[in-house]
Amino acid sequence: MNKNYDLIIVGAGPSGVFTAYELIELGIAKDKKILLIEQGKSVDKRSCPVEKVGKCIKCKPYCNITSGFSGAGAFSDGKLTLPNKDSDSIEVGGILDQYLGVEKTKELMFYTDEIYLKFGADPKLQGLDHLDEIKKISDKAKENNITLANCPIRHLGTEKSHELYKKIQDYILAHNVEIMFETNVKDLIVENNKISGVIIEPSNHKEDDEEISLYANKVVIGVGRKGAEWLAKMCEDHSIKNRAGVVDVGVRYELPDSVMKDINEYLYEGKFVARLAPYKDKVRTFCQNPSGFVANEVYDNNLTLVNGHSYKDRKSTNTNLAILASHHFNDPFKEPIKYGINIAENANQLGKGNVLVQRLGDILEGKRTWEKDLENNSVVPTLKTAVAGDITYAIGYRTMVDILEFIKALDKVIPGFAHPDNLLYAAEIKFYSNQITIDNNFETSVSGLYSIGDGGGLTRGLIMASASGVQMARILKDIL
Questions:
Q1: Span between the terminal Cα atoms of the chain, in Å
Q2: Residue among 48, 96, 94, 93 nearest 68 (CA)
Q3: Count of C-beta atoms within a 10 Å radius of residue 207
Q4: Which of 33-47, 68-82, 90-104, 443-457 has the lowest mean pLDDT?
Q5: Tell me: the pLDDT tens digits for 351-378?
Q6: Going by C-beta distance under 8 Å and a sequence separation of 6 or more, which residues neighbour residue 284?
Q7: Which of 384, 369, 372, 385 lies closest to 422, judged by CA?
């Protein structure tokens, strides 16, 4: 095993993968020792047993949906949200434009999209047709104090994204980039506020396993949301400057395709955002899956959250989407990741380790949902392992008010959105709430240590995370 590298990349999610890819394209990888470390499996070995056994068995040592080559995003619904060419801002996806400017960020995102097309992404872009119909929906939303962000969507599909990322994985391995799968980065090696390497161990490590030190004076952290808690610990242990960011807490909402027909047809994904009374918190829809399936995803310590899948070939009759409320904490509490974990733990306890599901009508009537209520419900749950219960025991009052007021308002734009048979699954939480302090070259306060992607709070989605990796490679070109 090599112990000395020119560059170590921690995390083989989109940001880390596209850093490695672009270094190959720039001709840097052939002359340098580059290592990509991933705690999960190679993409061809990632599979979820739910399809075979009918329930989540909480795979050890890590969930195959949240860990592995290509990261969690590609194994949910696989959507690329591109910027609107006519807009003078980047409406969704993160804050990359705050470091690079809007035009440079757009250029990077479109360049990255071409890479996805090169490896087999669907050439069809959703949301570019039916402009008159989309404007009507947007105008109706504005009347109800809701904004519709109209962004083109390229849908990879959960199963098709596996094939695409397998091709990218094979390309990287064929071009002098070493990948260590099923390997944990236990710690960073920081000396005199300079990075000098990482300490690794097997993902399924035992007490007598040997820890190994690998050395490099350039380390890129691209761990994604799955690694946000680990990254927060690294910041604390090594005095890496950071600040508490926003935590998104919410539910996965499931309703009939017939209700969402126009949104699904004209936009594929409707990105609605509002700040409604009484709290005026930002509430938004996210990750819409037409004819999709609600799914589990498991984080560290068997923490089970909810997400959604959307396949190219396999279809349901329901649409699911996230409804997320953004919260920012100040003194004396500055640990949004722990706040989100606490909510998820409470929901898991109520569901005996499973995701909770509740009818909207039962919430509004102040009662829990029972299994017999779901048997007679017009909306049939697509997540069969979800446990009927009362999600309001787990999700705080302020967040529930935000979500319910948003649902009621959106019902005026999309009739049927607030039907009492619609389902809320808890909890859905986005762990990118630790904002790493970086400069315009993505370098942290520790010399030679860089942070990109979702885990450090720079991006929020596949395409911008991938684009941050491309830019990271271009920065490294001149300093490796």
A1: 21
A2: 48
A3: 4
A4: 68-82
A5: 999 999 999 999 999 999 999 999 999 9
A6: 271, 272, 273, 274, 323, 324, 326
A7: 369
Residue pair 383/295 in contact by the 8 Å Cβ criterion: yes
| Residues whose CB is less than 8 angstroms from the CB of residue 401 and which lie 6 or more positions away in sequence, other chains included | 278, 279
Over residues 74-81, the mean pLDDT reads 76
Query: Please, are residues 123 and 135 in contact by the beta-carbon 8 Å criterion?
Result: no
Half-sphere exposure of 37 (CA within 13 A, CB side): 27
Q: What is the pLDDT of residue 336?
A: 87
Q: For residue range 40-55, what is the model confidence (pLDDT) as tens digits?
A: 999 998 887 766 666 6
pTM, entire model: 0.92
Closest CA to 94 of 462, 475, 438, 442: 462
